[in-house]
Design goal:
five-stranded mixed β-sheet; binds copper (II) ion; about 260 residues; 2 domains; Immunoglobulin-like
Length: about 260
């Protein structure tokens, strides 16, 4: 098995390396936001500088309480321009992305190649469960890993997540995937890796004293290598299966009612 284990370099001060198929869509929204925020910052600073230069100590102060028709009209125009040029398009584009890509679970669920993984978050670790060859969770051939998620490249990976204690957040920056694990809910997220390698999984909600320890590893393998890994891991699980170890049987039936 050839495996690239060296962490990918994170160059510069920009976003983390994007190793996912659809990550560029998120990056485009972030970059668009940054451009508008930068532009507004420059306009505001120029405005303040201009006001300082024009209205020095010898200039007689003229002011109102912002209740004049002119003040209200100017305020509404600026707010409206910002909303329709900046917030509105960002909001609409986010909704379109959520509908067509990141929230389009029906399409990913229907793909026979996709890999399903259940994640249980707890203070302070991630436990992952794969269904194994029978396709059913909580059976002897399930693969269970601890702080270690192994997935194939070029395949949609579907996660359902729960938490047994407090709110955690399953965050894989290099895959632009992030979702909270909330007690009492099954949440979900998906991504597709476009390259092999090792990537960080972190918890993005401050979840207690040892929050910093919730670091796991995502390993992306070429599909044939992953299939070999899964077959071996499943055979090991089936051999070591203990029907009396009830604590180990925490999996659930793949939920139709999972939410984003
Ligand atoms: Cu956490």
């Amino acid at each position: 098995m050839t495996l690239l284990l060296a962490p990918l370099p994170e160059k510069g001060i920009g976003l983390p390396h994007d190793a996912s198929l659809h990550g560029w869509r998120i990056d485009a929204l972030i970059n668009e936001t940054s451009v508008y925020v930068g532009l507004l910052f420059v306009i505001m600073v120029a405005w303040v500088v201009l006001a300082c230069l024009r209205h020095g100590p010898r200039h007689e102060a003229r002011f109102d309480h912002g209740t004049s028709t002119r003040s209200i009209a100017v305020g509404l125009c600026i707010a409206g321009a910002i909303f329709f040029v900046v917030d509105g398009p960002l909001f609409v584009n986010s909704l379109i992305l959520a509908r067509d890509v990141f929230g389009n679970f029906a399409k990913v669920e229907a793909d026979p190649k996709s890999v399903r993984i259940e994640i249980t978050a707890h203070q302070w670790a991630w436990v992952a469960r794969y269904a194994g060859p029978d396709g059913k969770f909580n059976t002897p051939d399930d693969i269970v890993t601890f702080n270690d998620v192994v997935v194939p490249e070029g395949t949609p990976i579907l996660f359902q997540l729960v938490s047994t204690d407090v709110i955690h957040s399953f965050n894989i920056p290099n895959m632009r995937a992030k979702i909270d694990a909330v007690p009492g809910m099954v949440n979900r997220v998906w991504f597709e890796a476009k390259e092999t390698g090792e990537f960080d999984i972190a918890c993005a909600q401050h979840c207690g004293l040892n929050h910093y320890k919730m670091k796991a590893t995502l390993t992306v393998l070429p599909r044939p290598d992953w299939e070999k890994w899964a077959a071996e891991a499943s055979a090991n699980s089936a051999r070591d299966y203990d029907p009396d170890d009830r604590e180990a049987h925490w999996g659930w039936d793949w939920s139709e009612h999972a939410r984003i």
